[in-house]
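Sanity check

After download, print the first record. It should look like this:
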Amino acid sequence: MMGFRARQAGGERRRGHVQQVDRHRADFAVGTPGYISPEQVKGEEMDHRSDLYSVGIILFELLTGRLPFTREETMDVLLAHATEAAPRFSDVGASDSVPPKSKPSS
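Expected structure tokens:
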């Protein structure tokens, strides 16, 4: 739908994209580091949930004005997606713009 898993033809390196070599030594882009899913980082099989994760990142950015994982190095961003929980809205100073979780009625 949005091309999060789109392959890159030709194997050229584009700024802001991560490339890796698979077992058959073919280069392909696995995504933009700020929006990449943990499955993509780990090289695991992906399905619709990977796209939903990336859409969640977009929503996080729309609500907070920033990406959930920002680091100096691209590899650190990738590792954060694969190993860390997403920050809470209050942790990034966006608690005023995002309503608190509603309590279930008894």
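If your output differs, re-run the checksum step. Summary of this record's structure: The two ends are 39 Å apart (CA to CA).
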